[in-house]
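Researcher: Quick one. two chains, 698 residues in total.
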Amino acid sequence: MASGGELINNKQVIFKNFVEGFPKESDMEVKTSSISLKVEEGSNAVVVKNLYLSCDPYMRIRMTQSDQETDDPEFIPFTPGSPLEGFGVAKVVDSGHPNYKKGDLIWGMVKWEEYSLIENPQLFKIHHADVPLSHYTGILGMPGITAWAGFYEVCSPKKGEKVYISAASGAVGQLVGQFAKLMGCYVVGSAGSKEKVDLLKNKFGFDDAFNYKEEHDLDAALKRCFPEGIDIYFENVGGKMLDAVLLNMRLRGRIAACGMISQYNLHQPEGVHNLMNIVGKRIRMEGLMAFDYFPQYEKFLDAVLPFVREKKVVYVEDIAEGIEGAPAALVGLFSGRNVGKQVVAVAKE
Amino acid sequence: MASGGELINNKQVIFKNFVEGFPKESDMEVKTSSISLKVEEGSNAVVVKNLYLSCDPYMRIRMTQSDQETDDPEFIPFTPGSPLEGFGVAKVVDSGHPNYKKGDLIWGMVKWEEYSLIENPQLFKIHHADVPLSHYTGILGMPGITAWAGFYEVCSPKKGEKVYISAASGAVGQLVGQFAKLMGCYVVGSAGSKEKVDLLKNKFGFDDAFNYKEEHDLDAALKRCFPEGIDIYFENVGGKMLDAVLLNMRLRGRIAACGMISQYNLHQPEGVHNLMNIVGKRIRMEGLMAFDYFPQYEKFLDAVLPFVREKKVVYVEDIAEGIEGAPAALVGLFSGRNVGKQVVAVAKE
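Model:
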């Protein structure tokens, strides 16, 4: 049954077609559609007003045509002609679902548009709004869980261990570094500009940092920062960086493979040559996806929310204002234009 | 103080010089030296008569010049002009060490020669001689511990899981496959000849097997054998094989990286391109070395000796007779000439 609600304008970011190579703004299009703000009677859907949209590197994978079947919502290819999807923070405008009511703040998978109709909603309710709501796209959302589970669970860290983080000023990396410092580790990060390297050293409290674009020899850069080698590598990059890291890992080192952003836009990923180090050094390399840890969200929040409130962990966001800027914000992830977690602010609460 | 023992002839396999590329017989030389069969008074050394020498792929790594420091005896480069070292089965001829006495059978690190003087011996005593002594270079020695720890500890196997083993008829692979069958797994192996493939299917009870040299497309071969994908990969090979396996791993698959024999003779190892699968599929890849599990040797023996005695596990050895044949036996590992575990029989007990 159709709802009785009148239709209102709804700006959307439409995914035009599948992408090869680096995504461009012109692969997306901002169009105005219309939407009813009432759910159909008897439906269990919700209608939400999107406040913040999250720009995340994994979204590039969804821009590639694929015939591989997947159960992972993070990997299902986008539908050409439809809006992009991604994590967002939103406010419930109408609900047919018993778990959500009008006025609730939520975060979870929404569409890139001003208002979204979400069937079978699986959204986290936001119970703590004393922190910036945008944080639920970052430190208190998917990247936060990734950093928390990846560091504490996958890396099995110990005080005093040497931790290296690539893409270290990004949504996940800045958190891993700060978690590692809180644990008493020696922490070095790399990033792609002087501004980001300064952030790592001065704002996030890393022990050292370098601009990978200015290093001719990544192996030498790592040997300079880690004369005794690396115990834990938080992998966000892949390719040449991973190859250099493998040469510098210590015995029984651990690599949490969270992403490989340097590879997403390549038709054929780069070859990694130094995997024999995994055998000789008994390295454990393990992939992780935030989804697997969503059932532990409350436990995560109990651990990380105090860090935020007590300012033990800071979080830098790069907020683009207005949905019209969403395509540029997303594309900018792959040239490293963003400084910190890239968010798009769509509307005020 | 010099011992009073008279000197006798001692044939040795001398490592002539560091090797690049595939090792050749001419990289070694069989020479006759002389040795006293008595240990010096006050010394804690032992003199052993070598019965069986073990040819193992990791020995290639010790043939390469390296300035990397290592604590792993398995990786310390050989000394040009001195005999090779490796695992062996031997009988104690004289002992200054309280743990060993004349007549004891032992296995452990010996030199490639008829008699070895071993300072600071760290040798396992053989208490069960009802099984072939050569087995202590294989199923009851280092390869056995590797297979046991790699499969049961690193791979965390479950009944019904799909297991793939490369170099599957080798010293380690044939055991992993049989352990996996005993656990109720579906097991496929690859090897490099029809004879070996027949062994896998008919002697070791693998569910399926293929000759990788006859497959133009390893990915297609794996898809044929594992239409639902691979849960556990026991990695002995590396390079292109690993790349094809990564495409076929299932969600939360495990890779025990035990060796990468295809890479040992290359100046620059092959690039592996499909590591992004580790992230998306949450794969855990972990290196292992038998040494780490030597403290659990008694536990291992309690588990595996009954398998041998009750013939629940069979073990195929390729025994070269006489120390003169040792260089050819070792070199043959890298062309796949051996069928089963390669051993050199030096002397009868």
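The domain at 7-138+316-345 of chain B is CATH 3.90.180.10 (Quinone Oxidoreductase; Chain A, domain 1).
Researcher: Thanks, that's what I needed.
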